[in-house]
Amino acid sequence: MAPGHNVWRTVTADKAGFLIDGADYFEALEESLGHAREQVFIIGWDFNPDIRLRPADPGSPTLGQTLLSLVERKRDLNIHILVWSMGPVYSGKSLKILKRRRWNAHPRIHFRLDTRHAVRGSHHQKLVVVDDALAFVGGIDLTHKRWDTAEHRANDPLRVTPKREAYEPVHDLQMVMNGEAAETAGEVARRRWLQATGETLETPRCHTVPVPELARHLLSDMEVGFARTEPSIRNSPPVRESFRLTLDCLASANTCIYIESQYFANAEVADILEQKLLRPDGPEVVVITTRTSHGFLERVVLGENRDRMIRKLRQADKYGRFRAFYPVVATDTAEPQEVLVHAKLLLIDNRFIRVGSANLNQRSVGLDTELDVAIEARLPQEERILESLRHRLVSEHLGTSQAAVERQFRQSNSLVRTIEELNMGRRGLRPFSGTGAPGKTDLHFATGLVDPRAPWWPLRPFKVKPLAKLQGFELPKQSSEGEPG
């Protein structure tokens, strides 16, 4: 992590840990909100006040009711909610979220729709900050279709929207941190609020919010890097720290690259992974991503780009170190149920982890607004914690115990062989079919329109010089047809 280059700044967290999947995150968040005294920020792509943070308890309050109860009990508390203006439309709530109700009519609950974004871009950050004392950053918005348990049961009766509509299993991840890291997250939130609304908010006084007990794989006294993505709008320069961090950490890998990403459709990422696979002493590369895309254009362009990237890497995999999977769970029929991978995670050599909102696609390079946080392990025990997290995630996807994954990994010292030995049940990881045969390995010609990497203006050409070339990476040459749009 290099401040001013691939991170905005690095600061210390007294404690930093991880919450895997929405059920643990929502429960931990409810506990933490109860400690709020002055200021809460909720910033996301979307927001739904009608979800329940504890759906197993039918008498539990909705999120909106929870927030209202907090400000009614705490006279000094203000809650600021900032949501991308088009998020409620894309998620199917339309503008009903603007309807005046008890929760958003309260004078100390400040709900705003963020309209100051790039053309065709979105505000994609997902963070919650409590009194600058505790922060949650990752891939989970406080909206419907985000809650699920680690079991990802195919027909979980609790996994329904507020309208009681069932939705598919979903896997995600959130990092929680305190100390200076939480203060920096608060600064990011106030800065985003100022950009969106023009309102300057004061920093809360010093408070303490305990790290929730559900947080796992805790690291102590860790340096946390904050990496942002901000598009160039209103003559402001673009901020591309997050993508630089992605390229730098992938380029540094020696033994293992573990990726979880909703999308896997970025040519520069594929180029670096290709270089790694072509080396006889390169790292293993394991990619866990979503198979079924939603929407026609997403299926045609992003889904095909994913297949092309996987095909490119399979062709480069001369030493058998690359695997790309999508997770499934068993059903009552022969056909398994896919799990939506909504996480945005990079874990490199057990010594570096990046969690946040940025996917491995084109628009997360410089069109959407993103926030990612990263940690570099310094000590052997910290590396063991990151390795334990990786094995916990792999065990979830395989439907086995973490102990079984760790035992198998000790025998083989290979993540690829560990997965292959344990990937035997109806729940597990499935390879992508149809990506091994010869075929196109460049980006779909419509990528510049559907998944652009920078704001598009009618008088500005589509082509953007790849960022990796600006950083001095040696990338394989592409035809002009395959240049990122």
Structural account:
The chain is an alpha+beta fold. It folds into two domains: 14-221, Endonuclease, Chain A (2-Layer Sandwich), CATH 3.30.870.10; 223-475, Endonuclease, Chain A (2-Layer Sandwich). 30% of the residues lie in helices and 23% in strands. The chain has helices at 22-33, 63-73, 87-90, 102-105, 180-197, 241-252, 267-278, 296-316, 363-366, 380-398, 402-412, 415-422, 447-450, 467-470, and strands at residues 9-20, 39-44, 78-84, 109-114, 127-130, 134-138, 170-171, 173-178, 216-230, 239-240, 256-261, 284-289, 322-329, 337-338, 340-341, 344-348, 352-356, 370-376, 428-431. It has a 17-stranded mixed sheet that branches. Strand 13 (322-329) and strand 14 form a beta hairpin. Helix 6 packs parallel to helix 7 (267-278). The model is unreliable at 458-485 (pLDDT under 50).
Write the layout of secondary structure elements.
Blueprint: E1 9-20, H1 22-33, E2 39-44, H2 63-73, E3 78-84, H3 87-90, H4 102-105, E4 109-114, E5 127-130, E6 134-138, E7 170-171, E8 173-178, H5 180-197, E9 216-230, E10 239-240, H6 241-252, E11 256-261, H7 267-278, E12 284-289, H8 296-316, E13 322-329, E14 337-338, E15 340-341, E16 344-348, E17 352-356, H9 363-366, E18 370-376, H10 380-398, H11 402-412, H12 415-422, E19 428-431, H13 447-450, H14 467-470
Parallel strand pairs: 2-3, 3-4, 7-15, 11-12, 12-13
Antiparallel strand pairs: 1-8, 1-9, 2-5, 5-6, 6-8, 9-10, 9-18, 11-16, 13-14, 13-19, 16-17, 17-18
